[in-house]
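Supplementary Text 2. Reproducibility record for the structural model of the 77-residue chain.

All settings were left at their defaults, and a single model was retained for analysis rather than an ensemble. We include the record here because the model underlies the residue-level annotations in Supplementary Table 4.
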Amino acid sequence: MRLEQPLNSQRSNPKRRQLEDLLEEVTDNALNKVKKQSAVNTNTLAAEIAGVQVAVKRLRIFGILIFLLLLYIAYRL
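Retained model, structure tokens:
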């Protein structure tokens, strides 16, 4: 059974320090990729919502025009 080395001797180990730095770099890169993908997904969702809002506005206008046309036809009869 091996005893734990003191914290200072672990940090002075160059291979351990190199592995910790590599792990930190990989973690940071992965986190940055997730943040970028999240931003892209958010922008895509915002664009889709804006598109739906435009479509709803057009349908509302079209519906009002049809209603007015039906009122005109009913009035003329």
